[in-house]
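Narrative of activities, Objective 1.

The group set out to show that a structural description can be obtained from nothing but a protein's sequence at a throughput compatible with the screening campaign. Below is one input-output pair from the validation batch, recorded exactly as produced.
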Amino acid sequence: MSSLAIVTICRNDREGLRRTFASLQAQSDQRFARVVVDGGSTDGSVELIRSQAQRIARWVSEPDAGIYAAMNKGWRLADADFILFINSGDGLADARVVERSLRCSMLASTSPMAT
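Output recorded for this entry:
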């Protein structure tokens, strides 16, 4: 089966990060790696990340050159066939997004055109 990493980018948005974490926790299929890239937050975001560390595969908190630099950092930290970027404050449309995505990736990998 294909693997999925969900990368979340954050900087000084503790409440938004909390909502994003809640959206990810609500997923019916938890077979994905969570990666969090924080831009050196000073608003409690790092403490929230630490409190969720058991659910996060990799995370880093350090100043960066902006959102695209943070996304590139997250991409490099993720170790998966597929990477989904979801920014702090955003949520997935419903609780089955990951489930459906993994099912589609499995179907695509078994297609004769995939070889």
